[in-house]
Amino acid sequence: MNSEPVETRFHGMGVSPGIARGPIQVMRDELEEVDRCPIDPSQVSAEIARFESALVQTRIQILEMQQKIAEAIGTKDAGIFDAHLLVVEDRTLIDEVLRKLEAEHVNVEAVFHEVATKYADTLGQIDDPYLRERALDIQDVMRRVVRNLQGKAPKMMPLPGEAHILVAHNLTPSDAASLDRDRVLGIATDLGSRTSHTAIMARSLTIPAAVGLHDVTEQVESGAMALLDGYTGLLIVNPSPETLSYYGKVEIRQSEVTKELAELRERSATTRDGEHIVLSANIELPDDVTSVSAHGAEGIGLYRTEFLYLDRDSLPGEEEQYQTYRRVAESVRPHPLIIRTFDLGGDKIAGGIDVSDELNPFLGWRAIRFCLEHPEVFKPQLRAILRASELGNVKLMFPMISGKAELRRAIEMVDECKSELASAGIPFNTEMQIGAMIEIPSAAICAESLADDVDFFSIGTNDLIQYAIAVDRVNERIAHLYEPSHPAVLRLIKMVADAAQKHNIWFGVCGEMAGDIELTPLLLGLGVDELSVSPALVPRVKSAIRGLMPSLHRSNPSMCAIKDRVTPLRLPLLDQSLA
Ligand code: PEP
Ligand code: MG
Fold first, then answer.
1. Cβ of 460 less than 6 Å from ligand 1
2. Is the CB of 462 under 6 A from ligand 1?
3. What is the mean pLDDT of residues 432-440?
C-alpha cells in the first residue's frame, strides 16, 4: 500500500506576499482541562500566595511582550497590552476569586478559571464590539494565569526550535507579539481578512500570510511539511515533488526579482513613453513612515488616521494629532502626505466613541457621516491637519463621500477651521489641496458634480468594489465573488477618470487594486495620475509602470481592448499570477 502523504491544498486569501516552506506548527487556542480539586482550609493562604505569584509572573510576561513588540513594530501595537495589564490588576476580579477560594475550598486555578470565564462570557454576550474585545483580553490573560498556576510554559513560548509555518484559528495581539520573526516563516489562519489584525501585523513583520482558510486548524497536524503562498493565499500540506519543484523555481525567481526591484528604489515611476505616475505608499501607523522611502515610494497617498486611535479609550486632542501629523509630514517632505480624515465606524471602532451596533455597519454611520455629526471629533482633526500643512506637503481627503451636499458640508467645516486658526494667528497652508475619496458608486456616478469642489479624487477600490457588486469585503465566504475587474467597477472608475480629466483635476487609486500589477496597464490606460499601495508592493508596481507605454493604449477607445492590447506587455515580474 502506498503510504506517501497526499498533497492537500487549502485556499484562503493572500494578505502578506511571499512564499514560505517548512513544518507546520498548529496553535490551538483552548486551554487544557482545568482540574477542580478540593483543598484543606489550612491550604487557603498557600493558594492565595500561589495566585499572587502567578499574577506577578503574568504581569512580567505581558510587560516583556509589550517591550518586544514596541521594539519590533512600534509603540502603538504595544499599547494593546495595556488592556491586558488592566485585567491582571482588576480588583473586582481578584477579590471575587479570593472570596470564592475562602468559601469553596478548591484549588485556585479552578476558581480563577470559573470567575474569569464568567466575566468574559458576560462581556462577550453584550452586543458591543468594544466590550467583546475586552472579553478576548480577559480570556487571553486567563489562559496565561492558569498556565502559570499549572507551571506550564506560555502557549506560544517556547516554540519548537525549528523554523515553522504557524497555523492558528486567529491570532490575538499577544500571540502576534510572541512571534519570533526568525522562526515564524509564514502564518495561516482560519479566520481573517485583509484588514484583520493578523494581516496588518504580518505585513508589518513582512511574514508571508494567508487568512480565511476556514477550518484548516482542524485539518492539519503539527509537524507536517507545508508550503505557504502569501500571494494567492494557498497553504499546501505535504506538497508533491512537482509542487515543490514548481515553487523552487518561484522562490529562485522571487529572490532574483527582489534584487532587481531593490535597484529601482531611487528610480522614478515613469513609463517608457515618459509619463510620470506618482507612486506613493499607504500607511496605517506613524511608525510605518520609515518603510515609505525604504521601498522607494514618492510620499504617502493614504494615511489611515483612524488606526492610531482604535485601541484607546479616548480620542486624542488637536495638539496630540498635530504633533503626530507634523512628524509624518516632515519625514516625507517634499513628497506629499495625504491625510485621510477619520474613517471610524464599520469595522473600525475607537474607544470613547459611541457607535452603537448596527445591522449593516459598512452601510451605516461611519466615516464622514459620523464626523459631520460630531464636530467636536472632526474639527480638532481638521485643525491639526491644517496646522501640519504648514510644515510639509500635506493634502487632506474625506472618506466615504456619497454626494455633493456631504462634500460641501465637509469643506465648509474646513473653512470654519481655517477662519478659527487665522483669527488666532496660527499658521497653515492656505493652498492645501483637498480631495474626495471615491469609494461609493453614487460618488463615482456623480463625480462630475463633485469635481468642481475638490483638487483631486482618490479612488478607494476596496469599498467601491464591495458596494458596486454587493460583496462584503471582510466576508471570507464570498471572497471569490470580490472581483476588481468586474465591468461595473471598471465603468465606475472610467467615469471618475473622465470627470477628473474634464475638470482638470488629478486622480489616484489608493485601494488594494492599485497594488495589483496585472491591473496596472488598465489603470494607466485610464489615465491615473497617482497609485498608492502598501509599502512592500511599491517596487513591483514601479517596475510594472516603467515597462508600460500608456499613450499607445489610450488611442484605443474600448476599455476591453485596452486590456487585451496591454497583456503582451506584462513584465516577467508578475509573481502575483504564479500558481
Ligand atoms: C478603500 O476603501 O479602498 C480604501 C483605501 O480605504 P479603506 O481600505 O481604509 O476602507
Ligand atoms: Mg474605504
1. yes
2. yes
3. 98
